């Protein structure tokens, strides 16, 4: 009989590598074997513990309070600040929106004001909690436009329950002007959330090691809550984020309690009820292992890697950084001689995963990099691979979508996409059809086709594709 662990290891061979600093999206690698070991062992030790009832598992309560205390100090939180450990950035963002909505039960149709670069998690929250999202275009520097944000608030301040800014935004790696937006929100009695899911555990250390960082923490008056992920630049195992509130009063609407049923009285601090203690223990163990000095060292590594990547991109004529990064996220674009989707394929062929970002409004396709501390040791390899990949992409030329397929995509209605329509697109993209899906090694032709579609059509296509992927293995 084949051992299940052997089978797991075999299946995992097809996955992107999570160590080695070569996967520049989705995962964050400290490059430290000891950190990985401590995190894994802590997750395993507490995998069966249940965070539903901290009175039954007081170790989990202690670890959560320790992590919140550490984060509160990092983020300049006042003495009365409180927080919650969640399952990730999306849950932290969802709870920020839910808490703001439920703090104003008298409002029938609540709204929130967000920049167009806000993370999609907030639009997910808008859908789930029926909060109208007022999306405000950003300025030419890709940062939230304070005047435009204030104007959007003023369109209906009585229904506005939340304003969101990013530190940094995912797509471009720049920090929004938090201070003027937070001040405008505070003046009108509106909550202001800073989405620092990807920056919250690295920007404070950037400042500690002497880098200039625009103000964004609780030191900014008017900021009422901040989200920061431990499983990003905290380098903890997946499944942990923190959501901090300036006061216990601001957090209270986040809680769910229910006693009017025959079972136990339920009290939930997050969207989940039962939740494994493993991720919490993994995060606590990693933070305890690294401490402030360890994170300082990792910050030096990741910012050196980021600076050197930006310099390398600037030295390649076909590439240009979209905006000088405020943190560890780099977005760059290609010129007409180099196709971005082909470049991503060429990098993958050389063992590097970089993330294409589709065109948006008047902005072209870009490439996103989430740089890790573990990438620094492989910088020369990255620069060499990027140089070779650009040359190969230039030689290959741009991907051209067949005009008939382009016309077919343009004629489709995303609200009425049928199985036959989707099968035709799958076949055209070389992904198979019917019940069989075959993802090609090179994704440039597929991405080029998807990029022609409107955002709503992209959503419909990806939903249909995911539906086909998630079918049971039976028999």
From TrEMBL:
Cofactor: pyridoxal 5'-phosphate
UniProt keywords, alphabetically: Lyase, Pyridoxal phosphate
PANTHER family xref list: PTHR42735, SPHINGOSINE-1-PHOSPHATE LYASE 1
Similarity field: Belongs to the group II decarboxylase family. Sphingosine-1-phosphate lyase subfamily.
Protein name (Swiss-Prot/TrEMBL): Pyridoxal phosphate-dependent decarboxylase family protein
Source species: Nocardioides caricicola
SUPFAM superfamilies, per database record: PLP-dependent transferases (SSF53383)
Pfam families linked to this entry: Pyridoxal_deC
InterPro entries tied to this protein: GrpII_AminoAcid_Decarb, PyrdxlP-dep_de-COase, PyrdxlP-dep_Trfase, PyrdxlP-dep_Trfase_major, PyrdxlP-dep_Trfase_small
């Amino acid at each position: 009989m084949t051992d299940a662990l052997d089978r797991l290891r075999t299946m995992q061979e097809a996955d992107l590598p999570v160590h080695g600093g070569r996967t520049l999206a989705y995962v964050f690698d400290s490059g430290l074997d000891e950190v990985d070991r401590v995190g894994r062992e802590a997750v395993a030790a507490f995998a069966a513990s249940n965070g539903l009832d901290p009175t039954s598992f007081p170790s989990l309560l202690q670890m959560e309070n320790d992590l919140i205390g550490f984060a509160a100090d990092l983020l300049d939180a006042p003495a009365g600040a409180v927080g919650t450990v969640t399952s990730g950035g999306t849950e932290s963002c969802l709870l920020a929106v839910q808490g703001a909505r439920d703090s104003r039960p008298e409002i029938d149709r609540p709204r929130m004001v967000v920049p167009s670069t806000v993370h999609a998690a907030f639009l997910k929250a808008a859908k789930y909690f029926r909060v109208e999202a007022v999306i405000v275009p950003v300025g030419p520097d890709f940062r939230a436009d304070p005047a435009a944000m204030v104007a959007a608030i003023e369109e209906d301040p009585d229904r506005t329950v939340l304003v969101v800014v990013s530190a940094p935004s995912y797509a471009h790696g720049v920090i929004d002007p938090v201070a003027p937006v937070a001040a405008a929100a505070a003046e009108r009695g509106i909550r202001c959330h800073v989405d620092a899911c990807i920056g919250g555990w690295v920007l404070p250390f950037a400042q500690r090691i002497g880098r200039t960082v625009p103000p964004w923490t609780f030191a900014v008056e008017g900021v009422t809550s901040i989200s920061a992920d431990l499983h990003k630049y905290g380098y903890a195992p997946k499944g942990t984020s923190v959501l901090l509130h300036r006061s216990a009063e601001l957090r209270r609407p986040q809680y769910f309690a229910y006693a009017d049923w025959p079972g136990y009285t339920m009290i939930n601090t997050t969207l989940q009820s039962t939740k494994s203690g493993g991720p919490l223990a993994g995060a606590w163990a990693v933070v305890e292992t690294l401490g402030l000095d360890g994170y300082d060292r990792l910050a030096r590594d990741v910012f050196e890697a980021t600076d050197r990547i930006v310099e390398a991109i600037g030295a390649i004529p076909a590439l240009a950084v979209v905006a000088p990064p405020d943190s560890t996220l780099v977005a760059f674009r290609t010129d007409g001689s180099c196709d971005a989707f082909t470049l991503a394929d060429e990098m993958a062929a050389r063992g590097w995963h970089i993330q294409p970002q589709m065109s948006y409004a008047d902005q072209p396709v870009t490439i996103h990099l989430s740089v890790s501390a573990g990438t620094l040791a492989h910088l020369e390899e990255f620069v060499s691979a990027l140089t070779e990949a650009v040359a190969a992409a230039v030689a290959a030329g741009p991907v051209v979508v067949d005009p008939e397929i382009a016309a077919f995509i343009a004629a489709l209605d995303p609200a009425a996409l049928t199985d036959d329509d989707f099968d035709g697109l799958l076949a055209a993209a070389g992904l198979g059809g019917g019940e069989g899906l075959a993802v090609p090694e090179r994704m440039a032709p597929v991405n080029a086709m998807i990029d022609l579609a409107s955002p709503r059509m992209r959503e419909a296509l990806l939903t249909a594709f995911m539906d086909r992927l998630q079918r049971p293995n039976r028999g």
